[in-house]
Structure formats: structure tokens, C-alpha cells
């Protein structure tokens, strides 16, 4: 052991450190690039869905669907008075009919007559809290004041979206795990190839008293450097792509897609990916080398 240690200091490194010229660091870079994009996509879309849910969960739209304009106006005012007295409602407002006509103009044209095509009165309601427990009370109040009233809870729209987001979340997690498994297999192949290339050196190290653990430590350091290099390259490339995509997506103006963004916590998780890949490579290399050396001897 002492002779191995002194020879290491007299002759420099027993094994050449990773020179980043072999295939392993570049394969890991590709795996890291894909893993970061997949993880960022899953986390970003989940954050957008959560942000949209926070905005819509406490909002309700009430339509007064009545052909008679006078009766429609009476029912609208009755609903507004009832809801204004409800302490569980933070804000209630009737939408401007002229604004509704402008929004319908692309479909009905600008010359349509509201007497021939009556437009329902629309009332926006913002709840003071969650919609789930307040919704039955509001439905009862609206039906008592406006028999023709229809209630649309925005949170109900989110049920299919939540199912899709959960599916995408687990799919992204599964793909990241598969990328990790592929990285581990790459390290196994690289470790075995390195052992075969340095079989003579390993025999000399054994003659000098080196143990399998000492030899594995030298090999795993070389593989860890290659893995760290590949991880940083993959992360840098993925980060550049993500910044471009986020800028383009936010410029679309979509209420759902435009909210896709990566928080500081998400970026922190993504930055840790190369360290995780390096740790995985070190453990995999160590186990592979120790197992292979045990078979040799």
C-alpha cells in the first residue's frame, strides 16, 4: 500500500484522467440535455396549471338567459343585489353589454340586431376563498332571483386539465428515470472498457499492494470528471434552449401557455442535475469496477 502511494506521487497519476475525448462524456451530455428539457417541461407546465387554477378556482360567471330585455334586466339587478350582500363574495360586476357585442362581432358581424339575437347578461363573481364550499349557496341565491340564470364555475374546467397535468408529470418523471438508467448503463460500459484498456496497469498495482478499493477510487475519479463535464455541457445547452422557448411562449399571449415559466426553485433543481449525474456515475463505476475486479481475481 505504501509502495503504491509513493509510486503515485513519484510518477504522477497512475491512470490518465478523463480527457473528454471518449464517447462517454458526450453521451452523458446528450442524456443530460434531454433530461433537463423533459424535467423543465413537466415542472413548467405544472406551474402554469397551478397558476391558472389559482386564478380560476375562485371565479364564477353567471349568465341571465332571457329573451325579454326588460325581464332580463330585472333579473340581473336582482342577482346583483343578492350577491352584493353575500360576505363570501369579494367582487361582483356586470359585464359591459357593448364589450360583449365587440367580442361576438367576429362570429355574428357588426351589424347584427340584439333584438333578433338577444345577448345574455353576464355577471363576473370573484369569491372570497375557495369555490367548492360557497358554490351551492350562490347557486341557490341566483336561482331564487333569476330563474333563467346559468352558473358557470371556472374551476370545473380544470378537472380534465388536472388529469392531463398529472399524466404529464408522471410521464416526465418516468422519462427522467429512464435517462438516468441509460446514463448508468453508459457508465458500466465505459468502466469495463477502461478496465480492459488498463489491465497491465492494474496487475502492476496489485503487485505493489494496491487493493481493489484503491484501484476503483482511481477509476471512478476519472469517470466522475467525464460525467461532470458531460453534465455541465448538457445543462448549458438545455438552459439556452429553455430561455429561448420561454421568451417565445410568453409572447403568445395565451392565458395558459403564457404562464409557463420556470421558478427559482425549478432552476435550482435543474442545476443540480449534473451533480446527480456525477454521483450516479461515481457509484455505478465503483460498483462495476469492484465487481469486475472480484471476478478477475
Shape: rod-shaped
Number of helices: 10
Low-confidence stretches: 1-12
Helix content estimate: 55-70%
- Give the tally of β-strands: 4
- What's the helix-strand series? HHEHEHEHEHHHHH
Strand line-up in the sheet with most strands: 2-3-1-4
Structural class by SSE content:
alpha+beta
Largest sheet: 4 strands, antiparallel
**Average pLDDT reading:** 78
Terminus-to-terminus distance:
18 Å
**How many domains, as an integer?**
2
The proportion of residues in beta strands is 5-15%
Describe this structure in words.
By secondary structure, this protein is α+β, with helices and mostly antiparallel strands. It folds into two domains: 2-53 and 159-296, no CATH class; 66-147, no CATH class. It has helices spanning 2-10, 23-56, 69-84, 97-108, 131-145, 158-197, 199-207, 212-250, 264-271, 273-296, and strands spanning 59-64, 89-94, 121-127, 149-153. A four-stranded antiparallel sheet has the order 2-3-1-4, with helices on one face. The longest helix has 40 residues, at 158-197. The radius of gyration is 32 Å and the shape is rod-shaped. Mean pLDDT is 78; it is low at 1-12.
Task: Kindly summarize this structure in a few lines.
The chain is α+β, with helices and mostly antiparallel strands and 297 residues long. The protein has two domains: 2-53 and 159-296, no CATH class; 66-147, no CATH class. It has ten helices and four strands, in the order ααβαβαβαβααααα.
